[in-house]
Amino acid sequence: MKLRIVVDPDLCIGAASCVTIAPETFQMNMENKAEVIDHGIADGGPSYERVLEVNEEEKDTIILGAQSCPTLAITIFDESGLQLYPTI
Amino acid sequence: MQYVIIGGGIAGTTAAEELRKTDATAEITIVDEEAHACYSRVLLPHYINSKVPREKVFLRTEKWYAEQRIERLAGTIVTEIDTKNNFVTIHSGRELPYDKLLLATGGQLNLAQTDPKGVCYLQTLDDADGIVARLAEVKRLSKEQQQAVIIGGGFICLEFVNIFALHEIPTTVVVRGDGFWSRVLSTQAKIVLARQAASKGVTLLTGQAEALPVGETEVNGVQLADGTVLSASMVGVGLGTHADKSLFVEAGVEIKSGILANSYLETNLPNVYTAGDAAEFSHPLLGRQMHIGNWLNAQMQGKTVAKTMHGERTEFSLVSSYSTNLLGMHIVFIGDANPEFASEVRSHKVTETSCVDLYLRNDKIVGAVLIGDLADRALITKAIQEGKSTL
Q1: Closest residue of A to B295, CA-based?
Q2: Which residues in chain B have their CB less than 8 angstroms from residue A14's CB?
Q3: pLDDT at residue A87 in the model
Q4: What CATH number corresponds to the domain at position B48?
Q5: What total number of domains does chain B contain?
Q6: Residue B375: its chain A contacts at CB < 8 A?
Q7: Contact A17 B295 (CB under 8 A)
Q8: Sign of the torsion formed by the C-alpha atoms of B31, B36, B38 and B43
Q9: Searching chain A, which residue's CA lies closest to the CA of residue B159?
Q10: Mind listing the pLDDT tens digit for each residue in B219-232?
């Protein structure tokens, strides 16, 4: 399945919770903001948004990574554009 | 099964959610001093600074609790914990029997010696509302009267520095020690932060044994030990937290700086657990009792302790980090950055505007503080997790 993952750098405070929980999907940049990477690789350069092909287990980890963000800076959409997180 | 959780913050709420996932029929009750549904305390500065609207700080809705069949007793104080007969009494007199009890009560604020109107704390949403209201009042004063004093030199102090800077309110920080985080940071690190504060026009007064907010109906200054009074129409207080001992000691729960627990977050009493800022737990990787007050630690402890409470005993071994900034200068704490428990504090990098210190114990890197240069953050985190002695 595909997930679209978007980080809002304006909300990100660099707590790096997402990196701790889902290091294959998130890494910190020099501005202390989380960037999205694809299975550990920043293909095509740094980006705050990517569409990733993931399995069920990877999806759970990525959602947990997003849930761990204390400023709700990470939004996750499924293939149909439905927002999976945040749910409120 | 009856689960009672004292504390509705992120640790308690996450635990409740996890318990529901594994037990569809359990009775789950959260006793919460807070009137509000679970919200992100970390988002409060964003709310104060109008970066997010107030409603965006909430992480759960009333509807969510209902859907999850989690009873949340809002604005409710626990008056007694009876660990012999397994029940908790709340202020209305109602008794809540439990099979398993989670203490996720967070920390109690250390208060200033006096707190007339205009003295602000930053722990709860109500505090944040108070800050927003006070800032609006201060902005209506003459330019000369718009002055702020901050008491304390840790995380909350820095939040206040950044808030006041954004509102262009001249600020003086008053600390007991010799700089920001005086008991944690190296001299070099303190110099880098003091320099940053000074370069942005923030005055730092160190070695102040006393800082007493003064004013008849509302605050108009802060008096120091030598009698000097610093003018202030707003005072931010960040003096840390302490464990609210009385209730737990009476219940027979062992406490030091927090509620003592093993690496499974089990307390000294059967069927009583702890998680989050309240917990002082044995950390299997760091090798000592840790009392950690950060978001990820609280959330993941809530998740982990729920497993153990449900019968799948699970150790908590996460090495968490936390990040903040002083007027744009990034600061990151990783693992166990406490010189009291370090055999060596090794300076990794120092420049005029940055400082990276490693904290070692038994020749292993157990913690780090990075200021102004976060390039080695991932490398250092890995070294701590792997118990390495060098990067």
Answers
A1: A70
A2: 323, 325, 330, 332, 374
A3: 86
A4: 3.50.50.60
A5: 3
A6: 30
A7: yes
A8: negative
A9: A13
A10: 999 999 999 999 99
